[in-house]
Design a protein that fits this description.
Distance between the termini of chain B: 25 Å
Strand content of chain C: under 5%
Oligomer: heterotrimer
CATH superfamily of chain C: MetI-like
Largest sheet of chain B: 8 strands, mixed
Structural class of chain B: alpha/beta
CATH class of chain C: Mainly Alpha
Strand order of the largest sheet of chain B: 6-7-8-3-9-10-12-11
CATH architecture of chain C: Orthogonal Bundle
Radius of gyration of chain B: 20 Å
Radius of gyration of chain C: 25 Å
Distance between the termini of chain C: 64 Å
Helix content of chain B: 25-40%
Order of helices and strands of chain B: EEEHEEHEHHHEHEHEEHHHHEE
Number of domains of chain C: 1
Number of strands of chain B: 12
Largest sheet of chain C: none
Largest interface: A-C, 69 and 53 residues
Chains: A mainly alpha (about 325), B alpha/beta (about 325), C mainly alpha (about 325)
Structural class of chain C: mainly alpha
CATH topology of chain C: MetI-like fold
Chain lengths: ~325, ~325, ~325
C-alpha cells in the first residue's frame, strides 16, 4: 500500500466515523418524546406560529424521517445551525464557540506537560529497569490510573485552596471577567494551576507506562547492541538510537488518547467550574438541555476524529518505513 | 609468537549469574592469540560459547555476567580499563559484525548516517571528510554510494550484511569480529559476503576472528582454528593441521561427519545437521560434569574422563588439544 | 472431559503455585476480595441504614458532623452516617461495575470468537466497528446516551441503563484480543486434526478453542472491571447515578454539590474516593499480574549495566 493510498484510506475512514457520529446524534435527537420542533427550540419558549413553521421547514420536520429529515438536519448542522440552547436561549453553535478556546488551553497545557514528563520518566524508568526509581514510577502510574479524575480534582481543589490559597474555581477572578485573557495573565495562571495539575498527573502515568514498555522493547533490539559496540555511552545510545524508535508508538497513543482527554476535560472543568466545553457539557446534562448536549457531543466527537486523522498523517512523516511505502 | 600477537586472550572465564539457579559457567580458561593479517576461526555447536567469547572480549555482556582473565590488545589489558576507556577501543580497534544483520541496523536512521556516526564518534575526521569516507566504504563493499541515503528496510538481506561490514571497517579497526556473518543469508549471498571479507582482508591487512559452525567456511577462510566445546577450548592449531590430523575426539567426530571439504557449499549438507549427528547434546552450563565436558558423548572415553578435566596440551608445533588419551 | 480441559485444570494448580508468590497479584486479590466481603455483609457492619438521619438530643439532624462516637466517618449534609453509606455503596458500585464488566466480557468474547473463527465479512465488520468505537470519545457518547435514554421514560431503573451503556460500549478491546488469539489457535495442529475428523464448529470452539483462551479472557475481564467501576463512579459523579441507591460515585456527587469541600467535611469526600481507588487498583494489580503470567515480557535489555570484570591474581594470566 503506497503512502497516498494509506492516507486516502485514513481519510475515508474518518469520514465514515463522522458519518456514524452524525447518525447517532440524529437518532438521539429524534427519539426524544414530544414535538420535534420543541427539541430544537425548547419546551417553554414561546414563539410565533410563523417562526415555528419556518423551523419545521428548516429541519424538514414536516417530511418523513428518512431521508428528508435526516438530510435536512445534516444540511442545517453543516451550515453551523445546531439549534437553540433551551437553558441559555442562545444558538448552540455560538455558545460552543465561546467555550472552545478555554478548553483547548486546558487540554493543551495538560497534555504537553504530561507528555514531556511522562516520556522523560518512562525513558528513565525503562532504562533503569527494576531499580527503585522504576518500581516507584510504576506504582505511581498504577495508582494514578486507578484514581477517578474527578476525585483527584476534588482532593487537589481542597488541598490547593486550603493550604496554597489558590482559587477554587473559574478561569479568572470575578473582577477580571470579560477582560481579554492576555491582559490578566497572572490571574489566569493562578486559576489554571490546579486543573492543569490534575490533568498532568492523570495522563503522566499513562504516558510513562507506554514509554517505558516502548523503550524496553527498543533497548532489547540488536541495533542497540550495535550502537553500544560502536563505543557509544549509554546516554548517546539512548538519545541517538533509543528515543526516536521508542517515540513512534507514543505518537499513535497520543492520538488515541485524545478521546480520553475530552473525558478528563469534562470531569476537571466540572470540579473546578472552569468555563469550557466540559463544564458546558455537564451543565447541559444537569439542565437536560438536549440541543446543547448534542451540539457539544457533535463538536467533541468530530474534533477528536479529525485530530486522530492528523496524528496518523504526522506518523507517516515521522516513520521512514511508512513514509517510503 | 606472543610478541607479535595483536590480540591475546588469556584464561578468559565468563559466568552468568542466573537467579534461583546459581552461576552458569559459559567460558572456562579460554586462551588464544590473533596475529596481524590472520583469520582465526572459532568453531563449535551452538551454545558452546563462541559468541560469548567475542562479547566478553568487547565487554558487551549484560550486568549479570562476571568476566575474568586478561585480554591484551597490543599489550593493553582491556579488562583493566574503565568502561569509559574501553569505549575508545570498541569499533576504533575492535569492530564486530553481528549475526543476522536484519536487525543490527537502526530501522529509522539512514544507512550512511549510521556509518558516519561511527567515524565522527571516535573523532577521526571532520563530518565532511567522514561523508566522503562513507561513500568510499559503501563502494568498497559493492553498494552504490547514493544508497547511503536510504533506510535499512530498502536494502536486501545481503546488502544489509555488506553495509554492516562497511560500518565495521569505518574506523579502520585492527581486528574484525564476524559472528556467523552469513547464517541468515542464502547460499549465493553467503559466498559473496565471504569473498568480500577475504578481499577486504587482503587489501586492508586486518585480522579477522570468524565465529561459525560451518566447517566449509573454516576451510575456505581461516588460517588458525579454535574448536570449542561446552565453553572450553578442545583443540587449537593451524587449519591444515586440524583438518588433516585432528587430535581431540570431538574434532575427529566433527570432521568425520563432514562429507567432503572440496564441496563445502553443497546445500544438502547443512553442517547443523552434521553436528547433530554426534549422539547426545552439549552439557547444560548450569550442570557442568566434573570431568571432561565431552565425556558423555565421547566414543573413546576412559574411566579418568568422568572425574578429571583434561588440560590443554602441546601435541605438535603450534597445536594444542585437551584429551586424556593424548598423554 | 477431553484432554484440553484436563490440561486446563492441571495448569490451574500450577498457576496458583506461581501466583501465590507474586506480591503484587496477591495484594490485588486481597483488595478486591475485601471489598466484595464488605458489600456482602454490609448490614452487619452498621446499626443504621443509609437513609437514617442521626439526630442530637434536641432532635435536630447532625449535619456535617466529624467522625465521632455516632459514626466512624461522621455524617453528611443531611445528617446521615457516611460509614453506612460507604458500605452499602459498595453493593451498588460493585454490582454496576461487575455486571457491566461481565456484559462487556461476554459480548467481546462472543464476537471475538465468532470473528476470529469464521473470518470473512463478519470479521471485517467487527474490525471496522471497533475501529469506529475506538475514535469516538467515550464519555460524551455515554453521557448523551444515558441522558437520552432517561428522557425516553423507559421502564427500567437508572442503574440498569448505566450497566447496559457501559457494558455495550466497552467490549471492543476484549473482542480484538480474543479475535487475535483465536486466529492463531485456529491454525494449530489439534484444531486442524479435529476438523479433519469431522468435528462440528460448535464442538471445536467449546472443546478446543475456549479452554485455550479462557485464561486470557479472565485476565482481560479483571482489567475491564476496573474500567467499569471507574466509569460508573464518573457517570454517577456527573449526576447520572440513582439518588435512591447511592453508589460511591453518587456519594461524591452529593458531597461536591452540597459543598462538603468548603465545609471542610473531608470525611464525606475522602472515603468514597479511596474506596474506588481501592477496588480499581485491586483489579488493575490482579489483571496486570495475570496478563504478565500468561504472556511474560522480555527479560532484559542491552543497556542494563555492564558485565563486571572480576580481578584475578596476576599469576593465572
Amino acid at each position: 500500500m503506497s503512502r497516498r493510498d494509506y492516507l486516502l484510506r485514513k481519510f475515508l475512514f474518518s469520514l465514515l466515523t463522522i458519518f456514524v457520529v452524525l447518525v447517532i446524534n440524529f437518532m438521539l435527537f429524534r427519539v426524544l418524546p414530544g414535538d420535534p420542533v420543541r427539541s430544537v427550540i425548547g419546551r417553554n419558549v414561546r414563539i410565533s406560529a410563523e417562526m415555528q413553521a419556518s423551523l419545521r421547514e428548516q429541519f424538514g420536520l414536516d417530511k418523513p424521517v428518512f431521508p428528508d429529515q435526516f438530510f435536512a438536519t445534516l444540511q442545517q448542522w453543516a451550515g453551523g445551525n445546531l439549534g437553540v440552547s433551551w437553558s441559555l436561549r442562545q444558538p448552540v453553535a455560538e455558545v460552543l464557540m465561546s467555550k472552545l478556546g478555554n478548553t483547548l488551553l486546558l487540554i493543551g497545557l495538560g497534555q504537553v506537560l504530561s507528555i514531556v514528563f511522562g516520556v522523560a520518566l518512562g525513558l528513565f524508568a525503562g532504562w533503569k529497569r527494576k531499580t527503585s526509581f522504576d518500581v516507584g514510577s510504576l506504582t505511581f502510574s498504577l495508582i494514578a490510573w486507578a484514581t477517578p479524575t474527578f476525585w483527584l480534582g476534588i482532593i487537589l481543589l481542597a488541598a490547593g485552596s486550603t493550604w496554597l490559597g489558590l482559587p477554587t474555581g473559574g478561569i479568572v477572578s470575578p473582577q477580571n471577567v470579560g477582560k481579554p485573557l492576555y491582559t490578566v495573565l497572572p490571574d489566569l495562571a493562578r486559576h489554571l494551576v490546579l486543573p492543569t495539575l490534575t490533568m498532568t498527573i492523570l495522563y503522566l502515568g499513562e504516558y510513562m507506562l507506554i514509554m517505558r514498555s516502548s523503550i524496553l522493547e527498543v533497548l532489547s533490539e540488536d541495533y542497540i547492541l550495535t550502537a553500544k559496540a560502536k563505543g557509544m555511552s549509554h546516554w548517546q545510545v539512548l538519545w541517538r538510537h533509543g528515543l526516536k524508535n521508542a517515540m513512534l508508538p507514543i505518537v499513535t497513543m497520543i492520538a488515541l488518547n485524545l478521546g480520553f482527554t475530552v473525558s478528563g476535560a469534562i470531569y476537571i472543568e466540572t470540579v473546578f467550574s472552569y468555563d469550557g466545553l466540559g463544564k458546558l457539557f455537564h451543565t447541559a446534562l444537569v439542565r437536560q438541555d438536549y440541543p446543547l448536549l448534542q451540539g457539544a457531543f457533535l463538536l467533541l466527537a468530530v474534533s477528536v476524529i479529525v485530530a486522530n486523522m492528523l496524528a496518523d498523517i504526522l506518523y507517516t512523516t515521522l516513520d521512514p518505513r511508512v513514509k517510503a511505502n | 609468537m606472543a610478541e607479535s600477537a595483536l590480540l591475546r586472550v588469556c584464561n578468559l572465564n565468563t559466568e552468568f549469574i542466573i537467579p534461583d539457579k546459581g552461576p552458569a559457567r559459559a567460558l572456562e580458561d579460554v586462551s588464544f592469540e590473533v596475529h596481524p593479517g590472520e583469520t582465526l576461526g572459532l568453531v563449535g555447536e551452538s551454545g558452546c560459547g563462541k559468541t560469548t567469547a567475542l562479547m566478553s572480549i568487547l565487554r558487551l555482556l549484560p550486568s549479570n555476567a562476571r568476566i575474568s582473565g586478561q585480554v591484551f590488545f597490543k599489550d593493553v589489558d582491556l579488562f583493566g580499563l574503565s568502561e569509559k576507556q574501553m569505549r575508545a577501543y570498541r569499533w576504533r580497534e575492535l569492530a564486530i559484525v553481528f549475526q543476522g544483520a536484519m536487525n543490527a541496523l537502526n530501522p529509522v536512521m539512514r544507512v550512511g548516517e549510521q556509518i558516519r556516526e561511527a567515524i565522527t564518534l571516535h573523532g577521526l575526521m571532520s563530518s565532511s571528510e567522514a561523508e566522503m569516507r562513507v561513500g568510499e566504504l559503501l563502494e568498497l563493499v559493492g553498494i552504490p554510494k547514493e544508497r547511503g541515503a536510504q533506510y535499512p528496510f530498502q536494502y536486501s538481506g545481503g546488502m544489509r550484511q555488506r553495509a554492516m561490514i562497511a560500518m565495521a571497517l569505518a574506523c579502520s579497526p585492527s581486528v574484525l569480529f564476524a559472528d556467523e556473518p552469513t547464517t541468515a543469508l542464502d547460499v549465493m549471498v553467503q559466498a559473496q559476503v565471504l569473498e568480500l571479507l577475504n578481499d577486504i582482508q587482503q587489501r586492508l591487512g586486518l585480522a579477522i576472528v570468524l565465529v561459525t559452525h560451518d566447517l566449509g567456511v573454516v576451510a575456505e577462510m581461516c588460517d588458525t582454528v579454535v574448536v570449542m566445546y561446552g565453553g572450553k577450548v578442545a583443540e587449537y592449531g593451524p587449519v591444515d593441521v586440524i583438518f588433516n590430523d585432528p587430535q581431540h575426539p570431538y574434532t575427529q567426530k566433527l570432521l568425520e561427519s563432514f562429507p567432503d571439504l572440496n564441496e563445502p557449499t553443497d546445500p544438502s549438507t547443512d553442517s547443523r545437521q552434521v553436528l547433530a549427528s554426534i549422539p547426545g547434546a552439549p552439557p547444560r552450563l548450569t550442570e557442568i560434569p566434573p570431568g571432561c565436558r565431552f565425556e558423555p558423548r565421547c566414543h573413546v572415553r576412559i574411566e579418568k574422563c568422568k572425574t578429571e578435566s583434561p588440560p590443554l596440551m602441546d601435541v605438535g608445533e603450534n597445536h594444542l588439544a585437551a584429551c586424556h588419551l593424548l598423554k | 472431559m477431553n484432554e484440553s480441559w484436563l490440561l486446563f485444570k492441571r495448569s490451574l494448580s500450577d498457576f496458583w503455585r506461581i501466583f501465590r508468590r507474586n506480591r503484587m497479584g496477591m495484594t490485588g486479590a486481597v483488595l478486591v476480595l475485601a471489598a466484595v466481603m464488605v458489600a456482602v455483609i454490609a448490614p452487619a457492619l452498621s446499626p443504621y441504614t443509609p437513609a437514617t438521619v442521626i439526630r442530637d438530643e434536641a432532635g435536630r439532624g447532625l449535619t456535617f458532623a466529624p467522625p465521632s462516637v455516632h459514626g466512624p466517618l461522621g455524617t453528611d449534609d443531611a445528617g446521615r452516617d457516611v460509614w453506612t453509606q460507604l458500605v452499602y455503596g459498595a453493593r451498588i458500585s460493585l454490582t454496576v461495575g461487575f455486571m457491566a464488566g461481565f456484559i462487556a466480557m461476554f459480548v467481546g468474547s462472543l464476537l471475538g470468537i465468532l470473528a476470529g473463527y469464521f473470518g470473512g465479512w463478519l470479521d471485517n465488520l467487527l474490525m471496522r466497528v471497533t475501529d469506529v468505537l475506538l475514535v469516538i470519545p467515550d464519555l460524551p457518547l455515554m453521557l448523551v446516551l444515558v441522558a437520552t435514554l432517561r428522557q425516553m421514560e423507559l421502564k427500567v431503573s437508572p442503574l440498569t441503563v448505566l450497566i447496559l451503556v457501559i457494558g455495550l460500549l466497552y467490549w471492543t478491546s476484549t473482542a480484538r484480543l480474543v479475535r487475535s488469539q483465536v486466529l492463531s489457535i485456529k491454525e494449530r495442529q489439534f484444531v486442524a486434526r479435529a476438523r479433519a475428523i469431522g468435528a462440528g464448529h460448535f464442538h471445536i470452539i467449546r472443546k478446543h478453542i475456549l479452554p485455550q483462551i479462557m485464561p486470557l479472557i479472565v485476565a482481560n475481564t479483571v482489567l475491564i472491571l476496573s474500567t467499569a467501576i471507574l466509569i460508573e463512579s464518573g457517570l454517577a459523579f456527573l449526576g447520572l447515578g440513582d439518588p435512591t441507591q447511592p453508589s460511591w460515585g453518587t456519594m461524591l456527587n452529593f458531597a461536591f454539590d452540597r459543598n462538603a469541600i468548603s465545609n471542610g467535611a473531608w470525611w464525606f469526600y475522602l472515603p468514597p474516593g479511596l474506596a474506588i481507588v481501592w477496588v480499581s487498583l485491586g483489579c488493575v494489580l490482579l489483571g496486570n499480574v495475570l496478563e504478565e503470567m500468561l504472556n511474560p515480557r522480555l527479560m532484559g535489555h542491552h543497556l542494563e549495566g555492564e558485565a563486571r570484570v572480576v580481578k584475578t591474581e596476576a599469576g593465572r594470566g
